[in-house]
Amino acid sequence: MHPLLARPEFRLYIAGQTLSVLGDSALFIALGIWAKVLTGSSSAAGLVMFCYAVPMLLLPLGGLVADRVRRRPLLVTVNLVLAVAVSPLLLVAGRGQLWIIYGTAVLYGLAGAILTPAQSAMLRTILTERQDFGAAVGFTQTMRAGTTLVAPLVGSGLYGWLGGRAVALVDIAILLAAALAFLALRVPEARPEPSGRHWRTEVLAGFQHLRTTASLLPLLIATTATATVLSFLQPVLFSLIQHGLHRSPQFLGVLETVEAVGALGGSVLGGILIGKLGPRRTVMLGSATFGVGALLLLAPSVWVVSAGLLIAGAGMPAGVVGLATAAQSLTPPHLMGRTQAAVNLSLTAPQAIAIGVGAGLVAALDFRTVLAAMVVGALLSGLYLLGKPDAAVEDEDDEEEPAEQPAGALTADRAGEPAQDAEPAPRLQST
After folding, report:
1. d(C-alpha 111, C-alpha 338), whole Å
2. Backbone angles phi, psi at 421, to 5 degrees
3. Which of 227, 290, 299, 410 has its CA 20 to 30 A from that of 263?
4. How many helices (H) and strands (E) does the chain have?
5. Which residues pair with 213 in a beta bridge?
């Protein structure tokens, strides 16, 4: 057993995070199906995704909340509030209550904008030795990938078996269990002190930290570039299935399952390799792995394409392990929530745009041309990191109070030291 798993607080954290992700993902799938069944409209089902996604633009505000209150009570409270917010779904009996489904999706999006940075910040509080960061991130990414693989089956299967109200009841139980897991955490947290800065400066502090940390910004740029290229894959797969493999559209479910299995494997592999390669090389390996997998998608063979998706699916999660480990290592605890929020928004906003761009490219060009561009883009993302500074993750005592830096000054990331933010460091919790 890994030493981290012998620590009760880490096991409770993993349990709380896994339950929270399971409840979110399973209900999200069920809400889309529910809207489709009630209206017969695919647009109505798609609106569920829109209602969930728009509040995620408030991630910087969620990061500020996570950095300005104690994180354990915050995680408990948000999960309990969500359990109450899901309860109105029990009243949905027909099309007239469709607004309840949309309202629940909005509330889930708002909660996600807080939970994501708060969970990352809580993890930063739990970890006391920097050498554990890589393994911890590997474990959390693996559990998230595994849960994401299972949750759609749970949500859709339970809806098909017992209906939407049953999914809501199960989700309430899962959220209560997640709240109990976080409540059982015993991690000392000092009460955060107000910094006295303008709220806009506070909200954007995570982006400022990313911009001024010499070895973290290149990792974010490379990972974002690979994630953007990855977003072209969804529209490409439809065309690949029709014109490359000559299969029905339903075959997409098979290919997406293969990709999800690859993602699970990539999370495990990233957690293993991060200690040997370090964040920079792990991100480079993730980009190169995705590029190689995408190259195999050019073959007119189901087996080769499946192998390619398995490999490509592993690339991005492995790279994310490298980026997340560097973020944990190079970010002061009092800034972890806002930094994680900035990382997530930097990754997801370009992806959302890229999905639309990818659909347009596939409509205008042969899918093989788009795939070739994806391969080149992924490989260039990895090559961009050649010669860039390494993010140090060696174990060294954390400083209680980070020294102040001039605004906009570039932090040099001395070996073993976390990058410093410009504000004094009240100790806060991490996810």
Report:
1. 15
2. -95, 165
3. 299
4. 15, 0
5. 411
pLDDT tens for each residue of 380-417: 999 999 988 886 654 444 443 343 344 444 444 433 33
Q: Where are the beta strands (DSSP E) in 278-421?
A: none
Per CATH, the architecture of 201-394+407-412 is what? Up-down Bundle (1.20)
Which pTM does this prediction carry? 0.80
Dig out the tokens for 79 from the structure.
């999960």
Phi/psi region, residue 408 (left: phi>0; alpha: psi -120 to 50; beta: rest), is left
At which residue do the structure tokens 């492995």 appear? 318
367 and 243 Cβ atoms separated by less than 8 Å? yes
- Give 411's strand partners: 213
CB atoms within 10 A of CB 219: 30
1-185 sits in which CATH class? Answer: mainly alpha
* Start-end of CATH 1.20.1250.20 domains in the chain: 1-185, 201-394+407-412
Q: First-to-last CA distance in the chain?
A: 22
Arithmetic mean of pLDDT over the chain? 85
Closest CA to 308 of 401, 403, 244, 384: 244
